[in-house]
């Protein structure tokens, strides 16, 4: 290589280099240059960020808008490309939020079944599937479901065809195929929808990854409003427009539920006493509330609207308290809430003493303290069967009496189960304020098809109520005043402006096909991040310094060579980290420190060996050669064993532990390279430049 | 500079005494978690943990009073500085716990600025999974290393190294449990502690590997030398490397334990204990096991001319 020789000669001032020495220089300089090249984006990025900050004041507001715009247009691409290549700090170091979500596939399977068909057998299959898949996250839910279905439902003569409706050719295989596709879609869609929500909310540099079979991991740097973030992520945002059916039919069903419950109570005294006892203990507050019902009952007696009840009142003549008690006992379900009959736009309370309800519109209110029992009743499949199949009962999102904060009152509606229109027709949403009522609203626009349907639906239901339902809660149930063309609609019923803003975001991003649950959540405040960096860096710095001094003193020139090699090593680790998509976390720093220890160990091993060989009377050259080659096997073995643990940690660990494992593994590779190759190259360069042909390894002079 | 040179210490002569000592420590390590109780972090237990900072110094007992009203059995302890606290709420109460804790504290201390330093909420499912995975990781690592060493050296050596690793893990566990019980350090079994244990597994085996490596070399060089002599020689020859490495690593870990901040403390302390134990076990467990195996299982006469001594020792042991 004559060309290189010439080049090198000019560089090193006449010191003639042998070709093999060129390679030594190359080995030392190449990693330094490579590391510099890889670290440049990190430097450049922070430099540009500083410049960007100079256009802003302390609150992040732009002061010099012209200069800022110029700067932005000039460096936009530069900023972007450098940002993607720089060293990323983990959430523990920069502050932010880590969320692990699980897509609820079991729920998806349940909801995909047609409602009419769902029975106890099916619920049993679903419950068992949920229990089993809860234990193992990597198991395919569909496989477990299929296994359970075959075990439980098949012997009872059911097939999947009983529960799932599909178009085209109908067979079990086709149903499973479709369910599998639905599940895959739901997970990908959830990831995409959540990404959009987060982007619209405005989080800089979020990472969103799929983990395992049905989990999504979010890393959101700089987020500090966890409450809002949680709402934003977890909400399904399934928007539906449903007709309100608060009619005599449902009141009738409620009456039947009472009848059924009090009858079954009498029939199964033993098994039910325990139940009623626990219910009593559960909610002492309910008793207080139901006095309202009692009051309503008595006022009713005076009112002209319900004369009939008077004569047939089975509690007539009993003392008030006793009558109340008896009423509750006979009406375990309807005594949980208050019902009104609306006549001439005035509401009259009604009671369920007799199965004789006038046709017309009804209205229901329920205190929060009774909600749990109410919902538990409705969840029971034996009770659910009493309610007509095409109807469902849903409560409002917001309480109607904000004054009573300890026990707010909600309304609930009976709705036609099949929605008239679904939220996927919504193309745009916009949060604003209704100046008249001074409440937050979200205005929505629909696509042409949606607008046409909306106009038809509203036209057909004038003077009737249509409920706007989001995630199975009624936000508002306005009465249609006239046909609405143009496809605009609005949602009211939000608690505050923030909620309206979040709703705007989730409506724009679209609904989730399957609900998601937060499994794990970690938030690191920015100040802890700073403290961690500082104490971690300080401790590492001191430790590094002590190691350097020790090596230098104990192994003399050899020690300084090792120090240089370790320095190159650390730079290399930092530089390669972004290549592996790694982030620098606090455990990651610990991994680097451990790597330094490994590197120092390798050097100590080699130097001790060289000293030994010198002691045995070998020449300088021979001692160095022998030292390196004999230490090699030990260095290889120690590095491989540590690498093995790193590997296991990487595959079994999560989040911060993976960060540790990654830096450890990168560190071990680069230590192996620097301790064996780089430090040897430096030693040989030094030896070649000394007249004595030897450098000191700190061995006692007398030897 | 040179600390140790040409030592001829009879490390393995006293091996029986040390093996008994190790056995005792291992039994302690096995029992301590059951008797004293392991303190699991919320990574494994589930629940919510919130680190808070007040603008001024506040009494822990006062905070406990406020929080206890809402969250029965909540755990409150100081965190790093005097105005920083850690509140831990059990799993079944952890819904919206942060908001409730902050609200309650704001009512009690209206003039304080309360900053959330960090907040972790772990569901029950995740906790269980992490526990299984942690155990799996340790077991897998031990097996993998055993196989590797068995492949590089001999099967006996692999088993010796594996026993030494298990020994190190148990002794470390014993010390961590005791230190945590005495409340000297804030030590919980959490994810980074598991990482520390695994690093102990990976790093403490280094000493063993280096001794074995030297034994392999010396077996070639000094054919016919009795095994105990040869092992002792190998240990002595690598002693100055062992001392220097352990010293530097211990220094590094000590500094991080003392100054590295709350988060790294548990990690570095565990490593510290593990590394020191690892050095000890490389001699008295790993090497001693290889000798024991050769003597008692393979029935190799490894002491050559020292037959009489063995018999004397056996007699002594029989009497005891």
Number of helices of chain A: 23
Please, what is the average pLDDT of chain A?
79
Number of structural domains of chain A: 4
Provide the low-confidence segments of chain A as ranges.
1-16, 269-311
Which two protein chains have the largest interface (Cβ within 8 Å of the partner's Cβ), and how many residues from each?
A-B, 78 and 71 residues
- Give a short account of the largest sheet of chain B: 4 strands, antiparallel
How do you describe this structure in short?
The complex is a heterodimer of chains A (703) and B (320). Chain A has 703 residues and is an alpha+beta fold.
Key attributes of the depicted protein:
heterodimer; A: 703 residues; alpha+beta; 4 domains; five-stranded antiparallel beta sheet; four-stranded antiparallel beta sheet; B: 320 residues; Multidrug efflux transporter AcrB transmembrane fold; Alpha-Beta Plaits; 2 domains
Write the layout of secondary structure elements.
The complex is a heterodimer of chains A (703) and B (320).
Chain A: H1 2-11, H2 19-53, H3 65-85, E1 88-89, H4 91-94, E2 96-103, H5 105-112, H6 120-135, H7 141-153, H8 160-163, H9 172-201, E3 207-211, E4 215-221, H10 226-234, E5 239-243, H11 248-267, H12 269-282, H13 284-302, H14 307-312, H15 320-330, E6 338-343, E7 346-350, E8 361-367, H16 368-379, H17 381-384, E9 391-395, E10 409-416, E11 421-422, E12 426-434, E13 439-446, H18 448-460, E14 466-470, E15 473-476, E16 488-491, H19 497-509, E17 516-524, H20 526-576, E18 583-584, H21 586-615, H22 620-652, H23 655-689
Parallel strand pairs in A: 1-18
Antiparallel strand pairs in A: 2-4, 2-17, 3-4, 5-11, 5-14, 6-7, 6-8, 8-10, 9-10, 12-13, 13-16, 14-15
Helix pairs in contact in A: 2-3, 2-20, 2-23, 5-6, 6-7, 9-19, 20-21, 20-23, 21-22, 21-23, 22-23
Chain B: H1 15-37, H2 42-45, E1 47-53, H3 60-70, E2 75-79, E3 81-89, H4 97-108, E4 115-122, H5 124-152, H6 155-181, H7 191-221, H8 227-237, H9 239-259, H10 262-296, H11 307-319
Antiparallel strand pairs in B: 1-3, 1-4, 2-3
Helix pairs in contact in B: 1-6, 3-4, 5-6, 5-7, 6-7, 6-10, 7-8, 7-10, 9-10
